[in-house]
């Protein structure tokens, strides 16, 4: 009998799928995922984050663009898990678009950003996702994201070529 597939990932496993490293690796743990469907992951936001030195010294707030990046990294994980492959050093994932981004609440030190990403579609190498990140059950940011995967040798070419 086959053992059930693990539906969580720790940071060591995440680093096998994402090329990002400190300070830009923004996913700490995958709580659950279902291939071809969705993933839930977390980013523990600490006062030691580099971006808090300048954003803002008297009222630390996680930059919105980094919340979007955290959701995009979560989406990339879902895509790799769905395809059943780990990227090699020649693999690159690029943003193609961000639609309907809305920021609903600030995120600061001590918060745990919980990201839920669903695949809306995958056609001709372009993935579209619905992403929502929340803190304590309150939506912090939501957006639709589009990404594509390329080999580094093809990365200089426009998407769809």
TrEMBL record:
Biological process according to GO: fatty acid biosynthetic process; lipid A biosynthetic process
InterPro entries per the record?
Answer: FabA_FabZ, FabZ, HotDog_dom_sf
Presence of the UniProt keyword Magnesium in the record: no
Q: What is this enzyme's EC? A: 4.2.1.59
Point out the signal peptide segment. none
Is Lyase among this UniProt entry's keywords? yes
Which reaction does this chain catalyze?
a (3R)-hydroxyacyl-[ACP] = a (2E)-enoyl-[ACP] + H2O
Intracellular or extracellular location(s): Cytoplasm
Q: Which Gene3D superfamilies does this entry report, sorted A to Z?
A: Hotdog Thioesterase
Key words of the record? Cytoplasm, Lipid A biosynthesis, Lipid biosynthesis, Lipid metabolism, Lyase
Q: A single GO CC term, please?
A: cytoplasm
Give the NCBIfam families listed for this entry.
fabZ, PRK00006.1
The UniProt similarity line reads:
Belongs to the thioester dehydratase family. FabZ subfamily.
Q: Supply the name of the protein.
A: 3-hydroxyacyl-[acyl-carrier-protein] dehydratase FabZ
Q: Which organism is it from?
A: Noviherbaspirillum sedimenti
Q: What is the lineage of its organism?
A: Bacteria, Pseudomonadati, Pseudomonadota, Betaproteobacteria, Burkholderiales
């Amino acid at each position: 009998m086959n053992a059930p597939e693990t539906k969580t990932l720790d940071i060591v496993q995440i680093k096998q799928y994402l090329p990002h490293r400190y300070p830009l690796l923004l996913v700490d743990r995958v709580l659950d995922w279902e291939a071809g469907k969705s993933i839930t992951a977390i980013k523990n936001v600490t006062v030691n984050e580099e971006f808090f030195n300048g954003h803002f010294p008297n009222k630390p707030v996680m930059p919105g663009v980094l919340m979007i990046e955290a959701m995009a990294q979560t989406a990339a994980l879902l895509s790799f898990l769905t395809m059943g492959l780990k990227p090699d050093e020649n693999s690159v994932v690029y943003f193609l678009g961000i639609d309907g981004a809305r920021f609903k609440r600030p995120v600061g030190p001590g918060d745990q950003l919980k990201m839920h990403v669903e695949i809306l579609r995958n056609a001709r190498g372009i993935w579209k996702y619905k992403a929502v990140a929340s803190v304590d059950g309150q939506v912090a940011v939501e957006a639709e994201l589009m990404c594509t995967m390329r080999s580094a040798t093809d990365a200089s070419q426009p998407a769809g070529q």
